[in-house]
Amino acid sequence: MGKLLSKLRGKSPLVHHITNYVTVNDCANITLAIGASPVMADDINEVEDMVSIASSLVLNIGTLNNRTVESIILAGKKANELNIPVVLDPVGAGATPYRTKIAKKIMEEIKLSVIRGNLSEIKTLYGIKTQTKGVDSVDSISSNKNDFIKTKNLAMDFANKLDTIIAITGEVDIITDGKHIYSIKNGHEMMSKVTGTGCMCTSLIGSYLGSGKDNLAAALAGVVSMGIAGEMAFERLDKCGGSGSLKTNIVDAIYNLSEEVIVKRGKIYED
Questions:
Q1: Is 40 annotated as a binding residue?
Q2: Which letter does DSSP use for residue 248 in this model?
Q3: Is 67 annotated as a binding residue?
């Protein structure tokens, strides 16, 4: 994973985002911190031109509207045409019928390199009825052995059906290409108190996707980088520090991330 970081920073890929307005600034800053170059262009009149010069495309449906849906489809199809990798963050899929419909439309019309979501979102897209709390997951990846195996099997089956990488993030992260499956045990529970940590993780995956051709490695690198940053951010909090300081510390941790830190702190297990 560490070598991917060096490769990313050497290339400084342009990462085109069509993302939500709640976390757009955080996504831009985390992309810059990892060493990539963000652009946040969502107007239908320029998305094809913008994605044509990008190294990867990040699609995030956090703040849905008709205008950006059209831009997402247009940009995604152009990216496919040019063999530019696309990562989808199906924020809140399952919360409303419209949101679920659009997430599935994107899956049907665009070839996705990676789908990163929480367990509720992934279950919804897979076809299992579940609940969400706004855009937050109600489901969590259980430590119960049988439940954990079921979740891994779901992820692998979904990855095979779509021929894509499925990344389920939570207390424990699961990443699979349908053949190989990994769990990651980095991160800190306080990250759930900061809006946008999932969106930032998707931006990190998009950054790694833009620097190489191994989509599984990119997803693993993005998720483990975010988890390590969350741990380091919490460790750096002083007595007066809270969720605002944690977010700032996460960006700083990504900026200072190194190959050595990833090798030393990364908790990636092949199952």
A1: yes
A2: H
A3: no
In contact, 116 and 199? CB cutoff 8 Å: no
Q: Whole-model pTM?
A: 0.94
Distances (CA, A) of 37 to 32, 149, 202, 222: 6, 38, 14, 15
- Tokens 């980095």 belong to residue: 186
In CATH, what is the architecture of 2-270? 3-Layer(aba) Sandwich (3.40)
169 is in an annotated binding site: yes
Which positions ≥6 away from 82 have C-beta within 8 Å? 51, 52
Which residues does 222 contact at the CB level (< 8 Å), separation at least 6?
116, 167, 201, 202, 204, 205, 206, 207, 208
CA–CA separation, 30 vs 72, rounded Å? 21
pLDDT in tens, 94-116: 999 999 999 999 999 999 999 99
Annotated ligand binding at 196? The verdict is yes
